[in-house]
DNA sequence: TTCCCGCACGTCAACGATGTCAGTCGGAGT
DNA sequence: ACTCCGACTGACATCGTTGACGTGCGGGAA
């Protein structure tokens, strides 16, 4: 046996007593230092009114015995400012956000909220009884002091307004831009759909297919609105069969594209599923025997400026979701620090470009006019 | 302007009052229901001693007004059981764990700890003053009731024992297997190094290079131990120049491999950097003008059983880290639920195989004997 | 009828930290 | 010498919740 000492039993005891030790309190520290609890509290919170010697003594004792204040007790006397909660609409592995974006988002949240010792509390509970109320349950429970609703799924207006009314800092990402006083950071999906459709209409297309996200995914509504606006302006009738809901699954995406493109009168496609899978669209087209750029025109939406995902044959809509998120998170951090109180409104405009004609992806971030007012 | 109603001011007020509303308390609910706070508490906690009518009434009021108990106040009366904290040694984007593994880990943690309404509190604070103490700061602060130390960086023994002594459920992942009474879930890195070196020695090699992880990365120590053991058994002298620390950066990996292989007497290499980058090793070898499988022998370590990463020319060590993590997390969940109290010891054995001779990657998970005792 | 038991409640103190306020103690000003 | 002031410190109440314990009431047994 190569590793003696690694062995330990795996037993089950039927009578399990609660062994968790109570932990040090401020009174313990006070007793050790020979002062009152309040004086220790003053040192912990960096308040004035303690002599230099006592302050040094108490600080030394605190670090020696490893005293940490009890967060719960603290949160009863003052609003909690050292943690943010992040709510998702679905477990990470099913998130419509790409994994790359998700990890970037995590890192950004940590960077902004942990540098002064803060905590991030993730809430991906897919088992909640009432998803919508539960979006902010950590806020109602005073578990964290600010809240990021990272999901683009619908949050109903009552919940949104309840969060707003609670006075806690919060930010809804990817949604809620239509409610005037609700904090959000997102991109303008309606505009993206409008630009896509208009681009294709201007090229002479009349029957334009669109892959919109599945039911219940709020930005899908906005997409449809932009699409319809472009059609209306050009006086082209709407055929509801051309707008298909898709999941974020690559195979599903390919198969829906396939079926759409079997209809030869469909000469253009807007791929706005939210996934980065331009490849899936290409696969679907291949199966239908059609060649993008020759047979039909495509507009692909992308959330990154990564040239690797570019499809030379297609026009692209760049949705600066990362830029919007970054900006929104900065403002949320200000709010937590009480450097602002108004709801956050960050809405970035999408940009249309074509890899074969535009040499560079437009770098300057197109901001919504709210932000230009600064 | 396409979107009226989206505009909102971006102002700074110099006198910011704290607007955060106090929130509903159990007393508010009690008043509404015409009962005492204790009775409401009984309903909230599903305790006996409340008549059916009152229980129904109170439950209705709770859901109507959206009352949630204050977590902090609660945690002062009973140990917190509805949340786990996860500590990392570094920000996610710098993690030695692959992004794929990381997201899988997140999902697994949520699956196990959120299904009954739990929360996950991540702690990636890279700004902590005393990293080692801070590994469990959320535990000392009673912020969460159980703790996962997800980092393979060294946790010093004092901290480990302090966590153990506190009686809180915890799990150290990827490390600490050498301390007898400390909970951990990991793979046997020493054995992996031993198997790798022995395989190469048996093939007749005498000068075997090893890429070990950077300084401070604890499993690196264990790797070296296994390597040395194999050398000793074969009575081959140790040349310290053959064991190079690397970071988890693909370019760095390639360049170190390059330099190692410029020495023609080096005829074998163990690539155990922990990254999935067999490609980097191949690139380094190419630059040195050497061909793996012909010029020299390689053993590549991998954490997945994904055939896509396999290099036909190399022998592989499969480290079932995911399996170990999954098992450890299950046991931690049991501990939180008080179905066990002993420290967790999950140590999986690595497996050596060669894609060109072994038809299948050995599927049955090789467990350490501790687990076989069950 | 009396006693006792158990259910359905309520009362109260305590958890750990901090805000409020009331002291104490030098030293400077008159 | 006497006041006054400011720096330092502690006593106490309080936050929201729950454990321990007390009370009143109805019903069955003696």
State the total count of DSSP E strands of chain A.
Answer: 12
Q: Roughly how much helix do the residues of chain A carry, as a percent range?
A: 25-40%
Distance from first to last alpha carbon of chain A: 69 Å
Q: What is the H/E order of chain A?
A: HHHHEHEHHEHEEHEHEHEHEEHEEH
Number of domains of chain A: 3
Shape of chain A: elongated
Assembly type of the chains comes to: homodimer
Question: What percentage of amino acids of chain A are in beta strands?
Answer: 5-15%
Major sheet description of chain A: 6 strands, parallel
**Can you tell me the CATH topology of the largest domain in chain A?**
Rossmann fold
- Poorly predicted spans of chain A: 1-16, 363-374
CATH architecture identity of the largest domain in chain A:
3-Layer(aba) Sandwich
The CATH homologous superfamily of the largest domain in chain A is termed Response regulator
Greatest chain-chain contact: A-B, 94 and 94 residues
- Nearest-integer average pLDDT of chain A: 80
């Amino acid at each position: 046996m190569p590793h003696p000492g690694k062995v330990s039993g795996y037993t089950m005891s039927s009578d399990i007593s609660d062994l968790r030790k109570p932990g040090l309190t401020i009174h313990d520290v006070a007793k050790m230092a020979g002062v009152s609890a309040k004086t220790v509290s003053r040192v912990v919170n960096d308040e004035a009114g303690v002599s230099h010697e006592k302050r040094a003594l108490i600080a030394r004792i605190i670090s020696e015995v490893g005293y940490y204040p009890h967060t719960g007790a603290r949160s009863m006397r003052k609003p909690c400012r050292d943690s943010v909660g992040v709510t998702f609409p679905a477990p990470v592995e099913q998130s419509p956000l790409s994994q790359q974006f998700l990890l970037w988002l995590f890192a950004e949240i940590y960077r902004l909220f942990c540098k002064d010792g803060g905590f991030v509390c993730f809430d991906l509970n897919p088992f909640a009884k009432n998803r919508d109320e539960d979006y902010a349950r950590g806020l109602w429970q005073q578990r964290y002091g600010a809240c990021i609703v990272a999901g683009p799924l619908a949050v109903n207006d009552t919940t949104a307004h309840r969060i707003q009314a609670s006075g806690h800092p919060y930010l809804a990402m990817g949604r809620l831009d239509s409610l005037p006083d609700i904090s959000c950071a997102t991109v303008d999906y309606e505009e993206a759909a409008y630009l896509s459709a208009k681009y294709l209409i201007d090229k002479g297309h009349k029957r334009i297919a669109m892959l919109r996200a599945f039911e219940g995914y709020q930005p899908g509504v906005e997409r449809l609105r932009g699409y319809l606006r472009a059609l209306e302006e050009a006086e082209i009738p709407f055929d509801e069969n051309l707008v298909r809901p898709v999941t974020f699954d690559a195979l599903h995406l390919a198969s829906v594209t396939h079926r759409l493109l079997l209809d030869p009168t469909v000469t253009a496609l807007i791929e706005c599923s939210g996934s980065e899978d331009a490849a899936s669209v290409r696969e679907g087209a291949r199966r239908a025997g059609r060649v993008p750029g020759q047979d039909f025109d495509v507009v692909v939406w992308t959330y990154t400026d990564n040239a690797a995902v570019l499809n030379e044959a297609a026009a692209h809509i760049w949705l600066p979701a990362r830029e919007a998120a970054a900006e929104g998170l900065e403002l949320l951090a200000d709010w937590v620090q009480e450097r602002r109180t108004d709801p956050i409104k960050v809405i970035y405009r999408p940009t249309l470009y074509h890899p074969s004609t535009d040499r560079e992806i437009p770098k300057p971030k197109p901001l919504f006019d709210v932000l230009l007012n600064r």
